[in-house]
Amino acid sequence: MKYIDREGRITTADSGQDRLLKRMYLSRAGRRILKVLVCPFVSRAGGWLLDRSWSRVLIAPFVKANQIDLSVCEKERFRSYNDFFTRKLKDGVRIMEGDEWTLTSPCDGKLSVYPIVHEKGKKSRFNIKNTSYTVESLLRSPKLAAYYEGGTACVFRLTVDDYHRYCYVDDGMKSENCHIPGIFHTVNPVANDVVPIYKENTREYSLLRSRHFKTVLMMEVGALMVGRITNYHEACLVKKGEEKGRFEFGGSTVILLFQKDAVRMDERLFQNTQSGYETIVKMGERIGESIRGQK
Fold first, then answer.
1. Is-contact 83 58, C-beta < 8 A?
2. Which helix (H) or strand (E) holds 29?
3. 278: exposed, middle or buried (C-beta count within 10 Å: 0-12, 13-18, 19+)?
4. Among 108, 112, 162, 170, which one carries the catalytic annotation?
5. What is the rounded CA–CA span in Å between residue 81 and residue 85?
6. Starting from the edge strand earliest in sequence, which strands make up the sheet with 102-104, in order?
7. Nearest CA-CA partner of 185 in 193, 177, 174, 173
8. For a designed S-S bond to 145, which of 46, 136, 261, 289 qualifies (C-beta 3.0 to 4.6 A apart)?
9. Any idea what DSSP says for residue 181?
10. Cβ neighbours around 175 below 10 Å, total
11. Any idea what the Cα angle at residue 96 is, between residues 221 and 4, rounded to 5°?
12. Residue 71 among the catalytic residues
């Protein structure tokens, strides 16, 4: 996997976990094992174990291996591994960049940006790596999918070392949450090369009738060992930067869908995606701007 940050620094990652997942997804024996591992009860069981107090012994090695700075967190001692995993940062650690017309990242993660292509007589679609997705298959709603024809899809992939809370990208009126049950594939890119993970995994979405970016669809996607997607609100008024929810243990994904002519993404993000790089972003970092707010 190849990452690039906002200064253009490139990182290539090929961990033991990546190699193991690749062998599992590409071999017949591995896929047999995965049929069990991706079942919801396995992730729920894993989440239950990591809620136990004994799991604290896993924290120190993880912090050291991933160079996590606990001094920026509200607390540095935790009841369990999952308590550590869902840790909350101190106020002011993540700042919303720009002005009210600036689009900022809702989370920490590795971002890829795709145009939602609409061709006459065909369903709107976008490609993640080598896998094609229709918006309809992602949402299971042809009526809702039509609103995002010609728009933009932003895919934020959170790895286990990322901060696993996420926020709203604008002020506005949030809808109720729509839950789509499914299974729990890893969101590692090697899995996406083999199976259409984002239309098979458990996910939850809501709509934000925003002040500056039209109606934004916000989706959270569970993944292998993610025991829970926790969204705090149903239908209500929300503020930009307000915490929307969190993921329990495991890698996961946040997806934003924007309507046509709602936003102009920073060009570097499209270029990085087309070149095969995921862009490292932090919550609150600028990623684009409202078309309506451009001078």
1. no
2. helix 28-37
3. buried
4. 108
5. 6
6. 102-104, 286-290, 263-265
7. 193
8. 136
9. -
10. 17
11. 60
12. no
